[in-house]
Write a structure and sequence with these properties.
The chain is α+β, with helices and mostly antiparallel strands. The protein has three domains: about 200 residues, Periplasmic binding protein-like II (D-Maltodextrin-Binding Protein, domain 2, 3-Layer(aba) Sandwich); about 90 residues, Dipeptide-binding Protein, domain 3; about 40 residues, no CATH class. Helices cover about 25% and strands about 15% of the residues. The strands form five sheets. A five-stranded antiparallel β-sheet has the order 2-7-8-10-9, with helices on one face. α4 crosses α5 and α10 runs antiparallel to α14. The protein starts with a strand and ends with a helix.
């Protein structure tokens, strides 16, 4: 990672920038509610299993600095552009995701220091029964939108119904499972999740963004809309130029600034984001002194691209940081809606031919570690860990669904010899394809006379180089 070596750069360190810009995760499937449910005790947080790590009287999240100085301007750069200020409809990819958490906030906020826990934000407390089928959120009476109007149960129900009918595809699928949602009073909302049998369901509701019923235009919610939204977060949008520039200004009257889950975050008075067409232009902006902070995603550029005056004289500080938590996945993904990929043996053979060892050494200076699991570096990864008795009992209903080498913790990605011409692996892949009925005819791989053909979608020249080598 990089930061400019001046006052703003020092503030980044003090404010723990990684925690400053919160991204509220959009989480997996939810479900329903019931009349007159038995509620559990009122609690300050939710966890997937057990209780949240922090007690009710916690002062701040462990990775926040409540004494961080406030002020200054942070200049960031993003690759691409945007054409909308609505990150919650089906065209969410056209909106800057920076809005989530900074402008538009959710009922509760997820801790980045725990596997799966939420703490108070708009909802000051929550009730949940032992079966996790009924959940009631109590809205903080202090909760306000940035125009000082109160956040009420009617706004929560409005947001729920709007996202259920017009939201992101995953919102629609998830919220459609909820049996009922009712307002018990102006500050209390109850959801019935009867029959879902999903421990995540209450947490998914906790992560729901709360939109203003009074100002959100339902009839335009599906559109690419540059109307500045009314949020309840620490920032308001002061400037938005489609595809080019976004400016967030800190709201000095942010209602939740002293709530423990928010203390120590959102310390810059202004966040300016300029958009660039590609990664090369974005990198040149850093070199020209137009950015204060940049996270480098190209290992090749990290290894060879930072020998320029601002780095040599200390104006730009280059640091390698280990996040200490799951970092996500980057790689090629099969589109299983395509018929060509229906046979798992074909998919496995293709994956076997990805020579990570040669690519890592020649393209990335050996800086990468192979992704072995979608849940890599987390408690949820099964790599190297045999299935427990409980997991085997659960999977016994689906014989053959999980291979023995995976169940026994023996599976690993195929390892090449790094030469770029590992014939041993190639022969294994060919044998697997032959077993599945594939063969090479006139230089083409085919099955039953149908050739194997597909496209690899890329975003930039770095991915193009990788795809060409793989192909």
């Amino acid at each position: 990672m990089l930061r400019a070596g001046h006052a703003v750069g020092r503030m980044i360190g003090a404010a723990r920038l990684a925690a400053l810009i919160h991204v509220i995760a959009v989480l997996p499937p939810v479900s329903a509610l019931a009349e007159n449910p038995l509620q559990g005790p009122v609690t300050h947080g939710l966890a997937l299993y057990g209780d949240p790590a922090l007690r009710k009287d916690f002062d701040h999240l462990p990775y926040a600095n409540p004494e961080a100085p406030k002020g200054g301007r942070l200049r960031l750069g993003q690759r691409g552009g945007f054409a909308s200020l609505n990150p919650f409809n089906a065209r969410f990819g056209d909106a800057p995701q920076l809005i989530i958490g900074n402008v538009l906030q959710s009922l509760m906020v997820r801790s980045q220091d725990e596997p799966y826990s939420f703490y108070p934000l708009i909802a000051e407390s929550v009730e949940i029964d032992e079966a996790r089928e009924h959940v009631t959120f109590h809205i903080d009476p202090r909760a306000r939108f940035s125009d000082t109007t109160p956040i009420l149960a009617s706004d929560v129900l409005f947001s729920f119904e709007l996202l259920k009918s017009k939201g992101r595809p995953n919102h629609r699928a998830i919220f459609a499972l909820v049996k009922s949602a009712v307002a018990l009073d102006d500050h209390t909302v109850r959801f019935d999740l009867t029959g879902v049998k999903d421990r995540e369901a209450p947490l998914i509701l906790a992560a729901m963004p709360v939109l203003s019923k009074r100002t959100t235009k339902v009839e335009r919610f599906d559109d690419l809309d540059m109307t500045i939204p009314l949020g309840s977060g620490p920032y308001v949008i002061s400037e938005a130029k489609a595809g080019a520039r976004l400016v967030l200004r800190r709201d000095p009257d942010y209602w939740a600034r002293d709530i423990p889950s928010q203390r120590g975050f959102y310390n810059f008075d202004e966040i300016d984001v300029d958009y660039y067409r590609d990664g090369a232009a974005l990198f040149e902006a850093l070199k020209a002194g137009l950015l204060d902070y940049r996270e480098e995603t190209s290992a090749a550029r990290w290894s060879t691209g930072y020998d320029f005056p601002a780095v040599r004289n200390g104006a730009i500080v280059k640091e390698t940081l280990r996040p200490g938590r799951p970092t996500g996945m980057e790689g090629f993904v099969f589109n299983l809606r395509k018929g060509v990929f229906r046979d798992v043996r074909l998919r496995e053979a293709i994956a076997m031919m990805y020579d990570f060892e040669w690519i890592n050494a020649n393209f990335y200076s050996g800086l990468y570690v192979r992704t072995e699991s979608y849940f890599g570096e987390s408690d949820y990864s099964s790599v190297g860990r045999p299935a427990s008795a409980a997991e085997r009992a659960l999977l016994s209903k689906y014989p053959g669904a999980v291979r023995d080498d995976v169940l026994e913790g023996r599976w690993r990605p195929v390892q090449h010899d790094g030469s770029g011409r590992d014939r041993t692996v190639a022969k294994r892949a060919q044998a697997l394809l032959a077993e599945a009925g594939y063969g090479v005819v006139d230089g083409r791989l085919e099955k039953n006379g149908v050739p194997v053909a597909f496209e690899i979608m890329i975003r930039d020249r770095d991915e193009e180089r990788l795809a060409l080598n793989f192909a």
